[in-house]
TrEMBL record:
Name the UniProt record assigns to this protein: Zinc finger, SWIM-type, MULE transposase domain, FHY3/FAR1 family
Keyword Cell inner membrane included in the entry's annotation: no
PANTHER family given in the database record: OS01G0519700 PROTEIN, PROTEIN FAR1-RELATED SEQUENCE 5-LIKE
GO MF entries: zinc ion binding
Keywords: Metal-binding, Zinc, Zinc-finger
Amino acid sequence: MAGLMRTTSRSESENHFFGKWTSPHLTLVEFSHYDMAIVYQRYVELKTDHDSRFRKPILKKDLQLEKEASVFCTHTLFYDVQEEIYSSYTHCMSVNILHIDDVEQYSIRDMQAENRISGENNFVVYQVDFRKSEMEVKCSFKHYEAYGLLCRHIFYVLRMNSIKEFHRKYLNKRWLKNAKPSNSSVSRINVESGLSLQSEVFDLYEIFESTVDRLVNNMDKLKIYKDEMNGLLAKAKIDVPVLPKINSKDVMSSMVGVKESKEKNINNPDQSINKGIGVHSRWRSINEVEKKESDKRRTFSKC
């Protein structure tokens, strides 16, 4: 996220972060312990990761959408999604439905939005376009475009169409538990492979990290798991061998159709004499030469 912020914003954010751990009244030794802020930040990150994996949030309704949100999303984002799902039952109602080709247009009235507006007879209605054949849904409230989370009006339309599972295209990666991979090999995934391969890789990382977290206090079982992983790695090396690296010169030779000669018959030419190469001096006028000669101190010839 730091790449999306201006330089001034990053500086102010860093000053605010480290300002909670420093003070002008500290000694030099105490001031040098500002690295405790980084340690505390890492501790909070590890704690939230642990809570997201091994603690289950409280469900308000026994719904499949709510259960899937608790599995995929972090706890903080789950409660936001849970509030939208619950509000689709308590604050939304459909007032009109239009069928245009393969698109269904729903007019959803949000009663909670009406309560926030002063005055009477203020009916806030949002339009939701739903294409069931391609599972595309779009709301005029623009909540998904702004935050990457589905709004209550979309959840209401999904419930009207008996859709009980999250479609994977609307699970934004930045809100998932496996958003941050533990290895940089994900960057080597080809973009043309699609999101399915990337999702499988993220699931593998999550399974591996969750297994290690459970076995970290049992050394015997951890060693057994390590041996099994080494066996799978050896099998993967046999099934998918590493191809030798292709030399760039061989690639160019195959494209041109000419092989590079091993002997060098053509040498680099000698350096040419261009303007400015040689004696770096300038022409001096007669007056300048005479003045320089006259400035010399005269000596007695017999001394």
